[in-house]
Structures are given as C-alpha cells and as structure tokens.
Amino acid sequence: MKNFSTVGTRLALAALFTAASAASAAPLSCEFRADAPDSHTVVKGDTLWDISATFLQKPWCWPTVWGMNREEIANPHWIYPGQIIWFDRAAGRLRLGNRLDADGGAGSLSNDRLQPRTRTQGLGKDAVPSIPAGVIEPFLTQPLIIEDDELKGAPRIVATQEGRVFLGKGDKAYVRGELKDNSSFQVFRPGAPLKDPVTKQIIGYEAFYLGTLKLQAEARPGASDVHTFTVATANQEMGKGDQLRAVPPTPMQNYVPHPPEQQVAAHVVAVYGGVTHAGQNQIVSINRGKLDGLDIGAVLQLYHAGRTVSDSTAKKGWFGREQQVRLPDEEVGSLFIFRTFKHISYGLIMQVTAPVEVGDVAKSPE
C-alpha cells in the first residue's frame, strides 16, 4: 500500500511496537506476512520498524512474536548490525542469533538463541535504535503545549536591557515571578487556544518556543524586585510579556512502543506547524493525555471519522426527510505517542494512506 507523505524524503520511524495489552483488553491479532523471508541480517542503517515490517503485517506486534513478557518489554532491548533475525515458522516466533561456522551448516541457527540484548549503559553508537532521535528531538523538551495551570503564576519578562524591544543572545532580561530554585528556563509565548473537537472546551494553548534564559542574579529584598537573566539561546525574538518555565530534565531516549493499557478513544486537536493536513513523520496533538491512560510509547490507530450521509434508498420519514446513516471510520495510519500532558498528547504519524486532519479519530489498536 502506498504511503502518503508531505515530506520530501521518507524518514523511517524505528519503533518496537508491542502487542502486550492489559489483561482486560482483547487480544490483538499478530500475523506474519505471506512473503516473510526466512531471515534478515541486520545492517547499519536498519530500523526496527522497517525490520519488523519485513516479517509482520502489523509491525507493532514485534515483542509478541519475540515471546517477550510485560517485564521484559519494559526494559531497553537493542539489536546490533551483524546479528541475524530468524523466522522460526514452526514456533511462529522471531529469534535473534548468529550463523554457525561451516561445520554447523550454512544458514542454520545456533542452539544459543538470543533475545534482543538489554544494556543499562545506553544505546551505544552501533545499535539499531527504536526511534531515531532526530525525528522528534525538537519536540521532546520545548514547550509546545501549555496547560492552564502552567500559565498561572509563570515567571515573565518585565523589562529588557537598555529598554530594547527584542532580546538576542547574551542580552539581559529582567524577570518577575517565583523561580522555585530553578536557574535555567525556556521562554515561550502562549498562542492559539486548543479546543477539544468534541466538547469544544479549551484544553490548552499552543506555545511558541522562543529560546532559553540563564539566571545571573536572584531578586534581593530591599535591593531589587526582579531576577536578572541572560539570554542563552534565541530561536525567535523575545521581549516583555513573554513567559518562562523551567527547563525539563533530558528525556530518556529509549522507547518501547505499546498499545495503551486501557481503551483510548481520542480525536486530533491540531497539526503542528499551523497546517490543516498532516502526513508521515509529522506531529499532531490529540485530546487525551496522562489522566486518560496514555503514556510515552503508546500506539494508536488513526481513522477518518465516518461521515453521516442521507440514505436515499430508504423510505422517507416525516416531511419527506431522508434517513441519516453513519459510515464506518476508515483506518488511515498509526500514531506513536512520544509526549504526554494531563489531557493532551503529542504523537508522531507513522505510515499513512491518506492525509490526517483535525477531528480524525485516534484509538487503541484492534
């Protein structure tokens, strides 16, 4: 099936999708492709997503056919170039191993059947990553969404060095507000409100990331009413009225995607970048978050919401009105959740067959 994409070059999303669902959820089907090869030798540049798609109809079934349990998939598992992934057709499993020497027979599988290796010291430069950091890295720490409780009481720039309208790198900024023992801050400007497509209530605000500030001197009672900051980085012009939030800790770069532990039904709230449609490797926000059962790595299926149409073939009702029927939702792709807020989450669109737009459905895999 041909993928739809709005980017010039397809960036492969290396995702290790699990089919380990909660005990209360219905089991997910996990089938091998009819043309699945007997083996695949891992080479540099491979992604786990592409490798799994070689064997499986649904790539997020990977850990199920590895036979991993819930505890095992919670840990990072890495695969390295030179290793061989074997399709054990009799057992219906994928296995990781090495070719035996000539005495063992070409193409045979070592008795020591390996599982993807767990490493506690990080990914390592040669390992096949589960998600390439470059695809979503800018979206991991920048304040793309601001919720109401973050706006209230957020420190703000109240004056600039020598009365400048805009600040650049190295300039001083004077800030009022509670720092809460933090010294590094991101500067953002609240943007358009994000409304739930169903309830129409405001659930957050887009945030324009402007740069970072570094604390130079805190306010001192009797001497100064403001904190003195220096602009460390400036992505866009910043000035009076722009707000601050503490720089969050560097996120863990290992992801183990999985279906949500509870059933989730969401809608696309916005497409990042201000466009109306999104394709492969673009970012969308949905109206469900941490408090709704989503966590980092959750996988959802994307659907065009079924339209309501008139049934001209049915008997007309009162005043000659035609009966209305709702068409089924049409699946168009997959969404990988990589950042969650209370009631909003950001997801990266996987492969898609049609453009994704605001109002589309995102729900647990079936």
TrEMBL record:
Residues 1-25 form the signal peptide. Pfam families: LysM. Keywords: Signal. Residues 105-126 are annotated as: Disordered. The keyword Signal applies. Residues 38-87 form the LysM domain. Residues 108-121 have a biased composition (Polar residues). This is LysM domain-containing protein. It comes from Duganella sacchari.
